[in-house]
Protein backbone atom coordinates (compact mmCIF):
# COMPACT_ATOMS: atom_id res chain seq x y z
CA UNK A 1 0.00 0.00 0.00
CA UNK A 2 1.10 3.58 -0.68
CA UNK A 3 0.54 5.98 2.19
CA UNK A 4 1.14 9.69 2.40
CA UNK A 5 1.47 10.75 6.03
CA UNK A 6 1.39 14.26 7.46
CA UNK A 7 3.74 14.43 10.44
CA UNK A 8 2.79 17.07 13.01
CA UNK A 9 5.28 17.04 15.87
CA UNK A 10 3.98 20.11 17.72
CA UNK A 11 5.48 21.14 21.05
CA UNK A 12 7.29 19.89 24.14
CA UNK A 13 8.17 16.21 23.91
CA UNK A 14 6.28 16.01 20.58
CA UNK A 15 9.33 16.01 18.27
CA UNK A 16 11.12 13.33 20.35
CA UNK A 17 8.26 10.87 20.46
CA UNK A 18 7.11 11.38 16.89
CA UNK A 19 10.63 10.60 15.67
CA UNK A 20 10.19 7.16 17.24
CA UNK A 21 6.69 6.80 15.81
CA UNK A 22 8.00 7.53 12.31
CA UNK A 23 10.92 5.11 12.77
CA UNK A 24 8.53 2.33 13.77
CA UNK A 25 6.15 3.17 10.95
CA UNK A 26 9.04 2.95 8.46
CA UNK A 27 10.33 -0.32 9.89
CA UNK A 28 6.89 -1.91 9.50
CA UNK A 29 6.52 -0.47 5.99
CA UNK A 30 9.85 -1.98 4.95
CA UNK A 31 8.95 -5.33 6.42
CA UNK A 32 5.57 -5.54 4.67
CA UNK A 33 6.54 -3.77 1.46
CA UNK A 34 4.50 -0.59 1.89
CA UNK A 35 5.59 2.75 0.52
CA UNK A 36 5.24 5.59 2.98
CA UNK A 37 5.89 9.20 2.17
CA UNK A 38 6.15 11.70 5.05
CA UNK A 39 5.34 15.39 4.93
CA UNK A 40 6.13 17.50 7.99
CA UNK A 41 4.07 20.49 9.02
CA UNK A 42 3.95 22.90 11.95
CA UNK A 43 1.23 23.32 14.57
CA UNK A 44 0.70 24.43 18.18
CA UNK A 45 2.91 26.90 20.05
CA UNK A 46 5.67 26.29 17.53
CA UNK A 47 3.39 27.46 14.72
CA UNK A 48 2.29 30.49 16.76
CA UNK A 49 5.95 31.46 17.11
CA UNK A 50 6.61 31.01 13.40
CA UNK A 51 3.42 32.29 11.71
CA UNK A 52 1.12 33.45 14.54
CA UNK A 53 -1.44 30.67 13.98
CA UNK A 54 -1.54 27.30 15.84
CA UNK A 55 -3.08 25.50 12.82
CA UNK A 56 -1.92 27.40 9.73
CA UNK A 57 -3.78 27.07 6.44
CA UNK A 58 -0.74 25.41 4.91
CA UNK A 59 -0.79 22.69 7.57
CA UNK A 60 -4.52 22.19 7.02
CA UNK A 61 -4.04 21.84 3.26
CA UNK A 62 -1.24 19.36 3.77
CA UNK A 63 -3.43 17.28 6.11
CA UNK A 64 -6.25 17.30 3.54
CA UNK A 65 -3.79 16.13 0.93
CA UNK A 66 -2.52 13.15 2.97
CA UNK A 67 -4.01 9.72 3.79
CA UNK A 68 -3.48 10.14 7.53
CA UNK A 69 -1.98 12.50 10.08
CA UNK A 70 0.50 11.34 12.69
CA UNK A 71 0.23 13.90 15.45
CA UNK A 72 2.25 14.22 18.67
CA UNK A 73 1.15 16.97 21.08
CA UNK A 74 0.67 20.71 21.45
CA UNK A 75 0.88 23.06 24.43
CA UNK A 76 3.29 25.43 26.12
CA UNK A 77 3.18 26.73 29.72
CA UNK A 78 3.81 30.29 28.58
CA UNK A 79 0.18 30.32 27.36
CA UNK A 80 -1.33 28.47 30.35
CA UNK A 81 -0.36 31.27 32.72
CA UNK A 82 -1.67 34.02 30.54
CA UNK A 83 -5.49 34.00 30.37
CA UNK A 84 -5.35 37.22 28.35
CA UNK A 85 -3.44 35.70 25.46
CA UNK A 86 -5.51 35.88 22.30
CA UNK A 87 -4.20 32.76 20.68
CA UNK A 88 -3.33 29.43 22.30
CA UNK A 89 -1.73 26.22 21.05
CA UNK A 90 -4.83 24.18 22.00
CA UNK A 91 -6.91 26.23 19.56
CA UNK A 92 -4.80 24.63 16.86
CA UNK A 93 -5.87 21.18 17.98
CA UNK A 94 -9.54 22.19 18.10
CA UNK A 95 -9.27 23.83 14.67
CA UNK A 96 -7.73 20.67 13.27
CA UNK A 97 -10.54 18.52 14.68
CA UNK A 98 -13.22 20.84 13.36
CA UNK A 99 -11.73 21.50 9.93
CA UNK A 100 -11.01 17.82 9.29
CA UNK A 101 -14.48 16.88 10.60
CA UNK A 102 -12.99 14.46 13.15
CA UNK A 103 -16.14 13.75 15.12
CA UNK A 104 -15.12 10.35 16.50
CA UNK A 105 -12.29 10.12 19.00
CA UNK A 106 -11.43 6.51 19.75
CA UNK A 107 -9.51 5.97 22.98
CA UNK A 108 -8.82 2.33 23.86
CA UNK A 109 -7.98 1.55 27.49
CA UNK A 110 -5.94 -1.61 27.77
CA UNK A 111 -3.90 -2.85 30.67
CA UNK A 112 -0.53 -4.54 30.42
CA UNK A 113 -0.24 -7.29 33.03
CA UNK A 114 3.37 -6.35 33.77
CA UNK A 115 2.35 -2.77 34.58
CA UNK A 116 -0.78 -3.19 36.68
CA UNK A 117 1.31 -2.49 39.81
CA UNK A 118 1.90 1.03 38.44
CA UNK A 119 -1.80 1.82 38.59
CA UNK A 120 -2.97 3.70 41.69
CA UNK A 121 -5.82 1.16 41.78
CA UNK A 122 -5.60 -2.32 43.22
CA UNK A 123 -4.24 -5.08 41.01
CA UNK A 124 -7.39 -7.21 41.25
CA UNK A 125 -9.53 -4.29 40.12
CA UNK A 126 -7.56 -3.24 37.05
CA UNK A 127 -6.11 -6.52 35.77
CA UNK A 128 -7.80 -7.44 32.52
CA UNK A 129 -9.66 -4.14 32.12
CA UNK A 130 -10.12 -3.56 28.40
CA UNK A 131 -12.55 -1.05 27.05
CA UNK A 132 -12.79 1.64 24.47
CA UNK A 133 -14.05 5.14 24.97
CA UNK A 134 -15.64 6.79 21.97
CA UNK A 135 -15.74 10.49 22.56
CA UNK A 136 -17.74 12.82 20.32
CA UNK A 137 -15.13 15.37 19.25
CA UNK A 138 -16.58 18.23 17.22
CA UNK A 139 -19.71 19.23 19.12
CA UNK A 140 -20.96 20.15 22.57
CA UNK A 141 -19.55 22.82 24.82
CA UNK A 142 -16.22 22.91 23.05
CA UNK A 143 -17.77 24.37 19.93
CA UNK A 144 -21.22 25.66 20.91
CA UNK A 145 -22.07 29.37 21.17
CA UNK A 146 -20.00 31.13 23.83
CA UNK A 147 -19.85 34.44 25.59
CA UNK A 148 -16.86 35.66 27.52
CA UNK A 149 -17.19 39.01 29.25
CA UNK A 150 -15.68 40.38 32.39
CA UNK A 151 -18.69 39.62 34.63
CA UNK A 152 -20.44 36.86 32.74
CA UNK A 153 -19.52 33.92 30.57
CA UNK A 154 -21.15 30.83 29.15
CA UNK A 155 -20.54 27.84 26.90
CA UNK A 156 -23.40 26.03 25.20
CA UNK A 157 -23.65 22.27 25.12
CA UNK A 158 -25.29 22.14 21.72
CA UNK A 159 -25.92 18.83 19.96
CA UNK A 160 -28.02 17.96 16.93
CA UNK A 161 -29.77 14.64 16.40
CA UNK A 162 -27.50 13.96 13.41
CA UNK A 163 -24.33 14.48 15.46
CA UNK A 164 -25.55 12.13 18.18
CA UNK A 165 -26.69 9.50 15.74
CA UNK A 166 -23.44 9.30 13.78
CA UNK A 167 -21.26 8.93 16.87
CA UNK A 168 -23.58 6.25 18.29
CA UNK A 169 -23.23 4.31 15.04
CA UNK A 170 -19.45 4.43 15.40
CA UNK A 171 -19.91 3.04 18.90
CA UNK A 172 -22.10 0.17 17.67
CA UNK A 173 -19.60 -0.67 14.94
CA UNK A 174 -16.94 -1.19 17.61
CA UNK A 175 -19.34 -2.97 19.97
CA UNK A 176 -20.23 -5.51 17.28
CA UNK A 177 -16.53 -6.33 16.87
CA UNK A 178 -15.96 -6.56 20.62
CA UNK A 179 -18.01 -7.87 23.54
CA UNK A 180 -21.26 -6.37 22.25
CA UNK A 181 -21.82 -4.15 25.26
CA UNK A 182 -22.31 -0.43 24.76
CA UNK A 183 -22.74 2.10 27.54
CA UNK A 184 -24.07 5.55 26.73
CA UNK A 185 -22.77 8.02 29.31
CA UNK A 186 -24.82 11.17 29.81
CA UNK A 187 -26.39 13.42 32.43
CA UNK A 188 -29.98 13.00 31.33
CA UNK A 189 -31.30 13.64 34.84
CA UNK A 190 -30.22 17.28 34.49
CA UNK A 191 -29.19 18.27 30.95
CA UNK A 192 -31.50 18.74 27.96
CA UNK A 193 -28.63 17.88 25.61
CA UNK A 194 -28.22 14.56 27.41
CA UNK A 195 -31.92 13.82 27.09
CA UNK A 196 -31.54 14.24 23.33
CA UNK A 197 -28.62 11.79 23.43
CA UNK A 198 -30.74 9.32 25.34
CA UNK A 199 -33.77 9.68 23.06
CA UNK A 200 -31.68 9.15 19.96
CA UNK A 201 -29.82 6.22 21.55
CA UNK A 202 -33.09 4.54 22.54
CA UNK A 203 -34.16 4.63 18.90
CA UNK A 204 -30.83 3.55 17.40
CA UNK A 205 -30.31 0.68 19.84
CA UNK A 206 -33.29 -1.16 18.32
CA UNK A 207 -31.25 -1.56 15.13
CA UNK A 208 -28.54 -3.41 17.07
CA UNK A 209 -30.39 -6.17 18.94
CA UNK A 210 -27.17 -8.19 19.35
CA UNK A 211 -25.60 -5.44 21.42
CA UNK A 212 -26.55 -4.89 25.05
CA UNK A 213 -27.04 -1.16 25.48
CA UNK A 214 -27.09 0.49 28.86
CA UNK A 215 -27.20 4.07 30.08
CA UNK A 216 -25.20 5.60 32.87
CA UNK A 217 -25.06 9.08 34.34
CA UNK A 218 -21.59 10.55 34.02
CA UNK A 219 -21.07 10.97 37.77
CA UNK A 220 -21.91 7.33 38.31
CA UNK A 221 -19.77 6.27 35.34
CA UNK A 222 -16.75 8.09 36.75
CA UNK A 223 -17.15 6.09 39.96
CA UNK A 224 -17.83 2.78 38.23
CA UNK A 225 -14.75 3.24 36.08
CA UNK A 226 -12.40 2.98 39.03
CA UNK A 227 -14.59 0.64 41.07
CA UNK A 228 -15.18 -1.93 38.36
CA UNK A 229 -13.43 -1.00 35.11
CA UNK A 230 -14.00 -4.48 33.68
CA UNK A 231 -17.72 -3.66 33.51
CA UNK A 232 -17.12 -1.56 30.41
CA UNK A 233 -16.67 -2.65 26.82
CA UNK A 234 -17.59 0.35 24.64
CA UNK A 235 -18.44 3.75 26.11
CA UNK A 236 -19.99 6.43 23.91
CA UNK A 237 -20.22 9.92 25.27
CA UNK A 238 -20.20 13.61 24.46
CA UNK A 239 -17.11 15.75 24.01
CA UNK A 240 -16.68 17.18 27.52
CA UNK A 241 -17.59 14.00 29.43
CA UNK A 242 -15.26 12.04 27.16
CA UNK A 243 -12.40 14.43 27.81
CA UNK A 244 -12.74 14.02 31.56
CA UNK A 245 -13.46 10.28 31.62
CA UNK A 246 -10.51 9.39 29.40
CA UNK A 247 -8.03 11.18 31.67
CA UNK A 248 -9.55 9.24 34.55
CA UNK A 249 -9.37 6.02 32.54
CA UNK A 250 -5.68 6.59 31.84
CA UNK A 251 -4.99 5.94 35.55
CA UNK A 252 -6.22 2.39 35.14
CA UNK A 253 -3.35 1.49 32.85
CA UNK A 254 -0.57 2.78 35.08
CA UNK A 255 0.90 5.33 32.71
CA UNK A 256 -0.62 7.93 30.45
CA UNK A 257 2.38 7.33 28.23
CA UNK A 258 0.72 4.14 26.99
CA UNK A 259 -2.54 5.40 25.58
CA UNK A 260 -2.94 5.92 21.84
CA UNK A 261 -5.95 7.38 20.08
CA UNK A 262 -7.51 7.80 16.69
CA UNK A 263 -9.75 10.63 15.56
CA UNK A 264 -11.81 9.88 12.51
CA UNK A 265 -14.67 11.45 10.63
CA UNK A 266 -15.18 13.26 7.37
CA UNK A 267 -11.65 13.91 6.15
CA UNK A 268 -8.11 12.73 6.93
CA UNK A 269 -7.93 10.72 10.18
CA UNK A 270 -5.49 11.74 12.92
CA UNK A 271 -3.54 9.35 15.16
CA UNK A 272 -2.09 10.74 18.36
CA UNK A 273 -1.15 9.86 21.93
CA UNK A 274 -3.72 10.81 24.57
CA UNK A 275 -1.05 12.49 26.70
CA UNK A 276 -0.02 16.10 26.19
CA UNK A 277 3.20 17.91 25.34
CA UNK A 278 4.79 17.52 28.82
CA UNK A 279 7.00 20.64 28.55
CA UNK A 280 8.96 19.67 31.69
CA UNK A 281 10.19 16.54 29.96
CA UNK A 282 11.22 18.27 26.75
CA UNK A 283 14.71 17.50 25.49
CA UNK A 284 15.51 15.12 28.37
CA UNK A 285 15.02 11.90 26.45
CA UNK A 286 12.75 10.50 29.17
CA UNK A 287 9.36 10.72 27.43
CA UNK A 288 7.64 7.40 26.82
CA UNK A 289 7.23 6.88 23.05
CA UNK A 290 4.81 3.93 23.41
CA UNK A 291 1.56 5.89 23.11
CA UNK A 292 2.85 7.41 19.90
CA UNK A 293 4.05 4.04 18.64
CA UNK A 294 0.70 2.42 19.48
CA UNK A 295 -0.96 5.27 17.58
CA UNK A 296 0.98 4.07 14.54
CA UNK A 297 -0.52 0.61 15.14
CA UNK A 298 -3.99 2.18 15.13
CA UNK A 299 -3.08 4.00 11.90
CA UNK A 300 -2.14 0.77 10.13
CA UNK A 301 -5.27 -0.94 11.45
CA UNK A 302 -7.43 1.91 10.19
CA UNK A 303 -6.30 0.97 6.67
CA UNK A 304 -7.12 -2.67 7.31
CA UNK A 305 -3.44 -3.57 7.80
CA UNK A 306 -4.07 -5.66 10.89
CA UNK A 307 -0.93 -7.80 10.69
CA UNK A 308 1.15 -4.64 10.71
CA UNK A 309 -0.72 -3.34 13.74
CA UNK A 310 -0.38 -6.67 15.49
CA UNK A 311 3.40 -6.71 14.99
CA UNK A 312 3.72 -3.27 16.56
CA UNK A 313 1.61 -4.34 19.56
CA UNK A 314 3.69 -7.48 19.92
CA UNK A 315 6.92 -5.44 19.77
CA UNK A 316 5.62 -3.04 22.44
CA UNK A 317 4.69 -5.96 24.69
CA UNK A 318 8.12 -7.52 24.12
CA UNK A 319 9.90 -4.27 25.02
CA UNK A 320 7.96 -4.12 28.28
CA UNK A 321 8.72 -7.77 29.04
CA UNK A 322 12.40 -7.16 28.31
CA UNK A 323 12.31 -4.22 30.76
CA UNK A 324 13.29 -1.82 28.02
CA UNK A 325 11.23 0.97 29.51
CA UNK A 326 11.38 4.72 30.01
CA UNK A 327 11.94 5.89 33.61
CA UNK A 328 8.29 6.33 34.70
CA UNK A 329 7.54 2.62 34.24
CA UNK A 330 10.98 1.12 34.71
CA UNK A 331 11.63 -1.56 37.27
CA UNK A 332 13.45 -0.06 40.23
CA UNK A 333 17.20 -0.30 39.99
CA UNK A 334 17.07 -1.62 36.43
CA UNK A 335 18.97 -0.13 33.52
CA UNK A 336 17.78 3.24 32.24
CA UNK A 337 16.45 3.57 28.74
CA UNK A 338 15.79 6.80 26.87
CA UNK A 339 12.97 7.65 24.47
CA UNK A 340 15.14 6.75 21.51
CA UNK A 341 16.52 3.57 23.16
CA UNK A 342 12.96 2.27 23.49
CA UNK A 343 12.09 3.29 19.92
CA UNK A 344 15.23 1.70 18.52
CA UNK A 345 14.65 -1.54 20.44
CA UNK A 346 11.16 -1.77 18.96
CA UNK A 347 12.46 -1.03 15.46
CA UNK A 348 15.09 -3.78 15.85
CA UNK A 349 12.44 -6.21 17.08
CA UNK A 350 10.27 -5.44 14.04
CA UNK A 351 12.96 -5.83 11.41
CA UNK A 352 14.63 -8.90 12.91
C1 LIG B 1 -7.50 16.12 24.86
C2 LIG B 1 -6.98 17.43 25.39
C3 LIG B 1 -7.64 18.55 24.61
C4 LIG B 1 -9.14 18.49 24.84
C5 LIG B 1 -7.10 19.96 24.93
C6 LIG B 1 -5.59 20.03 24.81
C7 LIG B 1 -7.76 21.02 24.09
O1 LIG B 1 -7.22 17.54 26.74
O2 LIG B 1 -7.28 15.82 23.66
O3 LIG B 1 -8.11 15.35 25.62
O4 LIG B 1 -9.65 19.04 25.83
O5 LIG B 1 -9.82 17.88 24.02
MN1 LIG C 1 -8.13 15.78 27.64
The overall pLDDT average reads 95
Shape label: globular
Helix content: 40-55%
N-C termini distance: 21 Å
CATH topology of the largest domain: Isopropylmalate Dehydrogenase
Major β-sheet annotation: 10 strands, mixed
- Name the structural class: alpha/beta
Cofactors, ions and other ligands in the entry: 3-isopropylmalic acid, manganese (II) ion
Share in β-strands: 15-25%
- The CATH class of the largest domain turns out to be Alpha Beta
Structure write-up:
- This protein is 43% helix and 19% strand.
- The protein has helices at residues 14-32, 44-51, 57-65, 77-80, 89-99, 123-126, 161-177, 192-204, 218-227, 239-253, 290-302, 306-321, 339-351, and strands at residues 2-10, 35-41, 68-73, 104-110, 130-136, 146-148, 153-155, 181-186, 212-217, 234-237, 260-264, 270-273.
- It folds into 2 domains: 1-102 and 266-352, Isopropylmalate Dehydrogenase, CATH 3.40.718; 104-260, Isopropylmalate Dehydrogenase (3-Layer(aba) Sandwich), CATH 3.40.718.
- It is globular.
- The longest helix is centred in the N-terminal third of the chain and has 19 residues, at 14-32.
- The two termini are 21 Å apart.
- It is α/β, with parallel strands linked by helices and 352 residues long.
- The structure holds 3-isopropylmalic acid and manganese (II) ion (MN).
- 3-isopropylmalic acid binds next to helix 5.
Amino acid sequence: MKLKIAVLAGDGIGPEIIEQGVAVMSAVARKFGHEVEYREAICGAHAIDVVGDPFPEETFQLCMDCDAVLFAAVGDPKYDNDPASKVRPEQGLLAMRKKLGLYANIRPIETFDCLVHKSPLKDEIVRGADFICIRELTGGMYFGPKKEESDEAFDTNLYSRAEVERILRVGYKYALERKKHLTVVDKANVLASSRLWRRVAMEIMKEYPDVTTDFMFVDNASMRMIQEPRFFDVIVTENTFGDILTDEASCITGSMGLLPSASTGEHTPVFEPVHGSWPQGKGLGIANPLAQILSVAMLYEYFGLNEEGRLIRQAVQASLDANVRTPEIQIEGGPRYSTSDVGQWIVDYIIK
